[in-house]
Design brief:
Layout lengths: L7 H4 L6 H4 L12 H7 L4 E4 L6 H6 L4 E4 L4 H15 L2 H19 L8 E4 L7 E2 L5 H8 L3 E2 L10 E2 L2 H7 L3 E4 L7 H5 L8 H4 L3 E3 L15 H11 L6 H15 L12
Parallel strand pairs: 1-2, 3-5, 3-7, 7-8
Antiparallel strand pairs: 4-6
Helix pairs in contact: 5-6, 11-12
């Protein structure tokens, strides 16, 4: 398989192959440069549903488009199957899906004394969060948590007020992988001082130097496992999670990851 172009969010990954970083940037999750795509003359364009308005234009140019909408674990698996079928690499997808089944079955076998309430901020601001229709909400649920924003309308990061966060009063706050702010920023914000997660020191930042595990990507299952180790360390320890990460990248990427990058 030969990737000829990518979106900026892919190119920004710390795990990117150096050759990938040299490929033309053809857009973002919000807009697509149709002319740039056409110049690359691809056999197939993979496109999130948020960009589907461009699909007809590309199809009219004779370019095959596959639109995907991986906003839950089930839809991620469906996406991987579709992509593998379109690219003729079904066996590789089956191997990854078998890994998902194994890990998700493992999580389902756990018994938790409590299901903590969780608030996940967006990459750009902690006053934006994931409503129930986003993949991140499914991630929280699979990890044995309850998304405090699951009843909010919308299918993308949704702005909320300080008053709303105080009313939600999450027990845990999660900062995603690509965030432009830190846990210290949240602890230092006086308007969040009465939130249980802040009072109890339960603000956690996902690893910043690997991949965006909070997103619907092939390694997103590691985001589920990471959050499980945060919420239920007595059942699934961080040490066990770290070994699972090492095994994952050795199996599917063919290299040994630096465990110093696997943070909590």
């Amino acid at each position: 398989l030969r990737l000829v172009g990518s979106e900026m969010c892919i190119r920004d990954s710390h795990m990117s192959d150096p050759e990938l970083l040299e490929k033309p940037n053809v857009g973002t999750l919000k807009e697509l440069n149709v002319e740039a795509v056409a110049e690359l003359n691809p056999d197939l364009v993979l496109m999130p549903v948020k960009l589907s308005s461009y699909a007809d234009t590309l199809t009219d140019l004779g370019i095959t488009v596959l639109v995907v909408n991986p906003e839950s674990q089930e839809l991620v698996e469906e996406m991987l199957t579709l992509i593998a079928t379109a690219c003729g690499v079904e066996e590789r997808a089956e191997e990854l899906l078998s890994y998902y089944d194994e890990k998700l079955s493992q999580l389902e076998s756990y018994t938790y004394d409590k299901v903590p309430t969780v608030y996940m901020g967006s990459n750009s601001a902690f006053l934006e969060t994931a409503p129930g229709k986003m993949y991140q909400s499914d991630l929280i649920s699979l990890a044995g948590g309850k998304n405090v924003a699951e009843e909010l309308d919308g299918d993308y990061w949704t702005a909320v007020s300080y008053e709303t966060i105080l009313a939600m009063n999450p027990e845990v706050i999660v900062i995603p992988c690509g965030a432009s702010y830190t846990a210290d920023d949240i602890y230092a914000d006086a308007q969040l001082a009465d939130v249980d997660a802040v009072k109890n020191g339960r603000v956690f930042m996902m690893p910043q130097e690997i991949e965006e595990w909070d997103s619907p990507i092939p390694s997103g299952i590691l985001g589920v496992l990471w959050l499980t180790s945060v919420l239920h360390d007595d059942v699934y320890s961080f040490d066990t999670f770290t070994q699972d990460v090492v095994d994952y990248y050795e199996t599917f990427y063919g290299f040994t990851i630096d465990t110093a990058l696997i943070t909590k």
